[in-house]
Amino acid sequence: EASWYVCHCGMNSLSEAIHYGKPVVCIPIMYDQPLVSQRLADELKLGIRMDTMKFSSVDLKQSILDVLTDQTYSEKMLIFCKSSRNYNGVQNSINLIENYINQ
Annotated Gene Ontology MF terms (predicted)? Predict the structure, then answer.
């Protein structure tokens, strides 16, 4: 089982990280990734955001060590994980459609 997740931090990657409760080291590249990684790392404190154009292997290694050793990231991500698992999108969609059809 993974303890952390390195990704480009698009919405799908972030959704997976939250679903599995894994803190993230973000390496945003383009599109929504810089904004998503900024929110994830800077505002929500669920991981660390790398400066895509400036980071080195030493920076990446340090960020991974920070995510592994600072339990704050894991604890906060676990809160989001538990919250997201309370919502069953498929079943909720089925219920909405059935309610609409049965009206």
Answer: UDP-glycosyltransferase activity
Give percent of the chain with pLDDT exceeding 90.
Answer: 86
Domain of residue 58, CATH code = 3.40.50.2000
Query: Are the C-beta atoms of residues 11 and 34 closer than 8 Å to each other?
Result: no
Name, in order, each residue with C-beta under 8 angstroms of 45's C-beta and a sequence gap of 6 or more: 72, 73, 76
Of 16, 11, 96, 97, the C-alpha closest to 2 is 16
Chain-centroid distance of CA 36 in Å reads: 9
Report the candidate in 27, 63, 90, 89 with the shortest Cα–Cα distance to residue 10: 27
Average pLDDT value for the chain: 94
Q: Is the pLDDT of residue 8 over 90?
A: yes
Kindly state the average pLDDT of the residues 45-52. Answer: 96
The domain in which residue 54 lies consists of: 5-101
